[in-house]
Amino acid sequence: QLQLVEAGGGFVQPGGSLRLSCAGPGFTLASYSIGWFRQAPRKAREGVSCISRIDGNTDYKDSVKGRFSISRDNTKRTVYLQMNSLKPEDTAVYYCAAASRTFCYLNERPYDYWGQGTQVTVSS
After folding, report:
1. Dihedral (CA of 40, 5, 81, 9) sign
2. DSSP type of residue 110
3. How many helices (H) and strands (E) does the chain have?
4. Cβ of 85: how many Cβ atoms within 10 Å?
5. Which residues on neighbouring strands pair with residue 33, listed in sequence order?
6. For the segment 20-42, what is each residue's pLDDT rounded down to a tens digit?
7. How far are the Cα atoms of 3, 21, 26, 33, 105 from residue 102, in angstroms, in the given order?
8. Least C-beta-crowded within 10 Å: which of 27, 49, 85, 95?
């Protein structure tokens, strides 16, 4: 099965930026809609952003609109999540997921494949 790999997490101060990447070595990510999810300690996993396979349409959680941007580079078989103006409440493990659906969703039920996650910590 497709196994996704996330990268780019780390420690930043409030107001800083990070760019996360999601890749599926040996697989074609262009065939899937891709979602970014995150889970903070003692909280449920939530959808952050997603990008559809068929038309590249995107969606964002309300609290990250205007700060986060999702994009796809099919030549590199990689999906990115650019995160700007980071806040302490953005601290979480971020997961990349792939769905064999033509459109993307911010709930996790349609997603078939998941990465191991990358830690993002926003703190002074």
Report:
1. positive
2. T
3. 0, 11
4. 13
5. 99
6. 999 987 777 888 999 999 999 99
7. 19, 21, 21, 6, 10
8. 85
